[in-house]
Every structure is written in structure tokens, then in C-alpha cells.
Amino acid sequence: MTIPVFRLPIGVECSSNKGKVHVSGSRGVVIFNSVSNLHRKGNMVIFLPYLTSYESSIFTQAIFGVVLGYTIELRLKGIGYRVREENQKLIFSLGYSRPVILDIPLAVSIKFDKRTFSLMSPDLGVLQNFATTIRRFRFPDSYKGGGVLYANEIIVCKEGKKT
User: Fold this and answer.
1) CA 103 to CA 69: how far, in whole Å?
2) Can you point out the beta strands (E) in 13-157?
3) Distance (Å, rounded) from C-alpha 23 to C-alpha 139?
4) Which GO BP terms sit in this record (predicted)?
5) CA atoms of 27 and 70, how far apart (whole Å)
6) What is the mean pLDDT of residues 6-35?
7) Residue 1, pLDDT score
8) How, if at all, do strands 109-112 and 147-150 pair?
């Protein structure tokens, strides 16, 4: 059986303390829980006891996130759908009687274009959770194709009533 050894890229720091693993790099910091202790020699990292495959994939995602970062681009499709940012909150106008207000997580930064906005973060789990929370408020309609869509998502619309 081979020992799983991780090689850290240049500029990435990794440490563990009280069941939490901290991975930091140029894009930010990712923290996740692990029962394994981290042992480091140079740029080589070994976890004892060995990481499960789930924890290993989280560690690999954390390394990619702090080096390259993750981006999810969302698009608003519909009449009067708008989004703006005020005081670390996103305010959506999605056709409801009141605006939808969401707190922006600390690890997520947002860049706005005309009809699209990009969510960027080093932590993939937080980013996907936040994007799903936004989509939940106006899931894409299967008849008109409107709602909050991923940038490259294609909605196949159903046929309406026949009269």
C-alpha cells in the first residue's frame, strides 16, 4: 500500500490545529474539518491517519481554490429582474412584491456585468451553496425560460396549451 503524499504548490501554506485544516494561498484561505493530523516536510504533506477519499478531494479542491480560485457565473433572464449590492448584501428584484435580500458570505466576492454577475471564491463548497441559494428564489421556468440561470445553461422550453 502506498502512502498518500500531497505536494504543495509554491506560495501555498498548510497547517492543522484542533481538527481543522487551514490552506492559504494568493486567492484566500480555506478551512475544513479533519480528524487527521498534518505532517509537513518541505512542500510535501502527509496526513496521519490517512484521509478518506472524501477528505482527500476536499483538500485537493482547497489547494486548487487558493491557487486559481473558483468562479460561478449567473444570469438573470426575465422582465425587470435586477440585482445590486449594498452593505455586504445582495438585493434582488425578481418579480415578487418585496425585494429578496441575501447576506454575502465572507469568502465570496462578486463582480457585476449588465445581465450577469460572477461569484468568486477559493472555497468551492461555500460558492456552490451560495449559488444554489440564489437560484432557489427564482428557479428557471420550464415554459418561458426565465429565472436565475447559470451562464452556460440552456433551458428547453415546454410547449404551451393547445387551443
Assistant:
1) 21
2) 13-17, 20-24, 29-33, 37-41, 44-48, 70-77, 82-86, 89-93, 100-103, 109-112, 116-121, 147-150
3) 34
4) translation
5) 10
6) 92
7) 56
8) unpaired
**pLDDT of the residue at 75:** 95
Q: Closest Cα partner for 128 from 91, 88, 74?
A: 74
148 contacts 76 by C-beta, under 8 angstroms: yes
pTM recorded for the entire structure: 0.89
Contact 134, 91 (CB under 8 A): no
Alpha carbon distance 115, 154 (integer Å): 16
Please state the rounded mean pLDDT for residues 23-49.
Answer: 91
SS3 22: strand
Q: What angle do CA 115, 73, 119 make, to 5 degrees?
A: 105
- The sign of the torsion formed by the CA atoms of 36, 58, 139, 103 equals positive
